[in-house]
Fold this sequence. Notes:
The longest helix is centred in the N-terminal third of the chain and has 22 residues, at 11-32. This protein has helices at residues 11-32, 36-39, 59-78, and strands at 42-48, 51-56, 87-91. The protein starts with 10 loop residues before the first helix and ends with a strand. Strand 1 (42-48) and strand 2 (51-56) form a beta hairpin. Strands 1-2-3 form a three-stranded mixed β-sheet, covered by helices on one side. The chain is an alpha+beta fold. Helix content is 50%, strand content 20%.
Amino acid sequence: MIKKINECRNDFLSTIYGKLSEFQTCERLIKKHLPERLAQHCRVTDIRNNTIFISVTNTGMLSLLRYEKPNLLKKLRTEEKMYALRTIELQM
C-alpha cells in the first residue's frame, strides 16, 4: 500500500512537505488580497530571508503586480500577521 507523503517518517520528505505546505499557504494568502484577474497569473516560487518570490505568467501581469505590490505587502504584514516579511520579489 502506498503511503501519503505526509505520513512518511523520512526527514528529507518531511522537510519538502513542510516547505510545500508553506508555499501553498502563502500563495492562498497572496491570492486572497489580489484582484482575481491578477491572482490567477501568480504563483509563489520561493520563500527565504523574509522575502516572498512570486512568478508571473506574462509581462502585462508583471506590470500590474508592480503597482499592487506595496498594498499587498502592507496587507500581508497587517491583516495576515506576517510581520517579519521584508519584501516581495517579482519574477517572470
